[in-house]
Design brief:
about 375 residues, Immunoglobulin-like, A middle domain of Talin 1, 5-stranded mixed sheet, binds copper (II) ion, EfeM/EfeO_iron_uptake, Peptidase M75 family protein, Imelysin_sf, signal, Cupredoxin
Length: about 375
């Protein structure tokens, strides 16, 4: 996940959007209504959305980055719930975002140049209501139900494993906690797009020290404890931070039990996980104190594979050539990662050479291409 969307600063963002002329210049065209893709011009200081209204159902955005920084685009619901996002859009590149929005109402678009901060935001109206694709296609319903079971099973493993990690921190067993850190995160990293979709949980559990935070919001979660364990030593409040981590994970568990997933969210999540690998693991950015990035890398790929596998019956119906290509590319990444195994885990990121990370980036890019087609196929 890129640097987080912070809840609770919509007014400032609207001001920024107004400044950037996002809301004022956006023509009330009916590109959305015509079902055609809505063009988004994402610049370093502007976010021009080709239409600020679209009928409920499948909404497609084509996000063209006209700026000089890597960017991302979001469609946000109430409380900054992420309805859909496309990230890691390099300068000059165009990426497509398909979102299923069955319920009419007021949403928010946000471009995030440099992938930091709240983004340049604007209102977006969805009119009417639409049947949920899962109600119209049993295979899609089975896909989301199957993936929901997968997410639930990961969380049911995440809670007790995080409990073990928290207990080790609280009894000041530094070596025990260090060993549990990457293992407990595996279950989290496999399902991160689902956690992220809640908007406020991900920054608390997986935020980085240098993320932008609202005043008074502390650096908490896994990476705070990672820094305590590997850099600063356990602190007087480490036990409280550990308790807070477990409470946030249990909050996630509660929310996931009732979350409604759409098939296109599974497809977008599969691609987001690979973007995660590209921006956070292959760069060593995520686990910068422990250098356990390859554990997360593997978990992200496994989570992506699980989302694609849930959609496979639909993919095979609609494009029988895509599935075998995906199998091949996933297998290539798995084989590559096997080469970096050490005991039950992986070599530390600090052991990787530029040649290693280049090979990893190429394999993940080669996988990302067919994975980015899944959303278009399952919604076709
Ligand atoms: Cu993460």
């Amino acid at each position: 996940m890129s640097r987080r969307v912070r809840a609770g600063i919509p007014t400032a963002a609207l001001a920024v959007a107004a400044l950037a002329g996002c809301t004022s210049t956006a023509p009330a065209t009916n590109a959305g209504a015509a079902g055609g893709p809505i063009a988004v011009r994402a610049a370093d200081d502007a976010c021009e959305v080709g239409a600020t209204e679209a009928p409920a159902g499948k909404i497609t955005f084509t996000v063209n980055n006209t700026g000089s920084k890597v960017t991302e685009f979001y469609l946000l619901g109430t409380g900054d719930r992420i309805m859909g996002e496309v990230e890691n859009v390099g300068p000059g590149l165009t990426r497509q975002l398909i979102v299923e929005v069955p319920d009419g109402g007021t949403y928010t678009t946000a471009c995030k140049p440099g992938m930091v901060g709240d983004g340049i935001r604007g209102p977006f109206t969805v009119t009417g209501t639409a049947a949920r694709s899962v109600d119209e296609n049993t295979k899609l319903a089975e896909a989301t139900a199957g993936y929901h079971r997968y997410v639930t099973s990961q969380i049911e493993a995440l809670v007790p494993k995080t409990q073990e990690f928290v207990d080790a921190v609280k009894r000041q067993d530094v070596e025990g906690a260090k060993a549990l850190f990457p293992v407990s995160r595996t279950y989290w990293e496999r399902i991160e797009p689902v956690a992220e979709s809640f908007g406020d949980i991900d920054p608390k559990i997986d935020g980085r020290e240098d993320d932008e935070r609202d005043p008074g919001v502390a650096f908490t979660g896994y990476h705070r404890l990672e820094k305590d364990l590997w850099v600063d030593g356990l602190q007087p409040d480490s036990a409280a931070i550990a308790d807070r981590l477990l409470a946030d994970i249990k909050d996630l568990q509660n929310r996931v039990s009732t979350v409604e997933l759409t098939p296109v969210q599974l497809a977008n999540g599969a691609k987001e996980l690979l973007d995660e690998v590209a921006t956070g693991k292959i760069t060593g950015e995520e686990d910068r104190y422990s250098h356990t990035d390859l554990w997360d890398f593997k978990a992200n790929v496994e989570g992506s594979q699980a989302a694609v596998a849930a959609l496979r019956p639909v993919l095979d119906d609609k494009d029988p050539t895509l599935g075998p290509t995906l199998d091949e590319r996933f297998a290539a990444v798995d084989t590559l990662l096997e080469g970096y195994r050490a005991g039950d885990g992986y070599v530390l990121y600090t052991r990787l050479t530029p040649d290693d990370t280049r090979k990893m980036a190429e394999a993940v890019d080669a996988l990302g291409e067919p994975v980015s087609q899944v959303a278009g196929v399952v919604t076709s």
